[in-house]
Amino acid sequence: MYLPNTPADVRDMLSTIGAASIEELFETIPGELKLSRPLELPEGLTELELSALLAEMTASTVPAGENTCFLGGGAYDHFIPALVDALAGDPRFVTAYTPYQAEASQGSLQVFFEYQTLIARLTGMDFSNASHYDGSTACVEAALMACTATKRSKIVVLDSVAQHDAEVLSTYLKHRDVELAHCGVDEGACNLDELRCLVDSRTACVLLRHPNAWGILEEVDLISQIVHDAGGLLVVNVDPISLGILKRPDTYGADIVVAEGQPLGLPLSFGGPYLGILACRQSLLRRMPGRLVGETVDRNGKRCWVLTMQTREQHIRREKATSNICSNQGLMAIRACIYLAALGPTGLREVAGLCLQKSHYLAAELVAKTPLRLVYPKSPFFKEFLLRMPGERPAAPFVDALAEKGIFAGIPCKDTLLVAVTEKRTRAELDRFVRECARYTEV
């Protein structure tokens, strides 16, 4: 809620800090950066009027759960067991949403410790921190962590990573002395020949996504060999659900693993809050940003938990801090912990298997019964695939038309459509999607 300051409040605050006016307070800000005109804001509303306006605006928004959802691109309509909401909704967890003094709550520390343990087992890494803001900031932190660890200043990013991850990384590196190189794709996956040319003795890390932005599986073993032969680190951005059936990142030499944790029991929620996952090998532990919860005993010999490491500049000397944006997403990490514990290895394998089977069934049916075609027909994929519209027609009108029929068809981009299929989609929903696609593309 926004609480404005009264003129008296402003005078009192300025007097306390020794400034005569707001202008004097901000005089150190260059003039070209200041707004030279009043903000064009509408007149204020009463609480009743504002409530009515917000109700009108929200009424026009359709939650993904009310339609048959084939949206993906980093946020997915997975099933969330009731157990997740029931346990994570405990007020003792909710009120510690982002605990800055987590050591005061043994319950929070214990569940973060369990979260770290589950993430480490899921990824095959030695350590996981207590979480990040989201998957994109986790990618940034991993890349900067690699630069610090290797004392190198070149980051190679595959063009098959998600666009939003690449853009966030580019933004953070804009004013740093770090070179950002991009590697192209071949049949939807990394162009290995181009990668060999880009990776050199200055390369701190290669950032790849597996499965990538189009759901395609990368040649992770070959990519790992290329970057390690040059002395760099391999940073892998994974879909955590895919690890139910795909090889763990440690088996192909990943040094740092990051992920968007939304598939692990977090609702779509119109884009957040989500969860950033970051795990690494033991040799990189001291470079890892964020918090690390450890197990110990108290003075009475009783098992307890403590913040073993916290590397924000608020906690240690600024010159030794690894990051300044590593507050954890406490409540979201708790949800992911409960989800993973509830499913276990067998349940996660079943969810991943259903995503794989249903996505391949839908892709085969669409190719057989509609003019839609796979953009990369020879490339193996998991859960997501990219379709091309017939006659290079734009995909956006197609998406709008199906939305009117209660189907979120996917993410359009010019004449292509990214479709994601989770375990929630039934055979009837998949077949209906095929029929509606056939009707539209025949027009």
Keywords:
single chain; alpha/beta; 7-stranded mixed beta sheet; 13 helices; 17 strands
Summarize the structure.
This protein has 443 residues and is an alpha/beta fold. The protein is built from 13 helices and 17 strands.
Architecture blueprint of SSEs:
Layout: H1 7-17, H2 22-25, H3 47-59, E1 68-69, H4 82-88, H5 91-94, H6 106-123, E2 127-128, H7 135-150, E3 154-158, H8 163-173, E4 179-183, E5 185-186, E6 189-190, H9 192-198, E7 203-210, H10 220-229, E8 233-238, E9 256-260, E10 276-280, E11 291-297, E12 303-310, H11 330-369, E13 373-374, E14 384-388, H12 396-403, E15 407-408, E16 411-413, E17 416-420, H13 427-442
Parallel strand pairs: 1-15, 3-4, 3-7, 7-8, 8-9
Antiparallel strand pairs: 2-10, 5-6, 9-10, 11-12, 13-14, 14-17, 16-17
Helix pairs in contact: 4-11, 6-11, 7-8, 11-13
Describe this structure in words.
With 443 residues, the chain is of the alpha/beta class. The chain has helices at 7-17, 22-25, 47-59, 82-88, 91-94, 106-123, 135-150, 163-173, 192-198, 220-229, 330-369, 396-403, 427-442; strands at residues 68-69, 127-128, 154-158, 179-183, 185-186, 189-190, 203-210, 233-238, 256-260, 276-280, 291-297, 303-310, 373-374, 384-388, 407-408, 411-413, 416-420. Helix content is 37%, strand content 17%. It is globular.
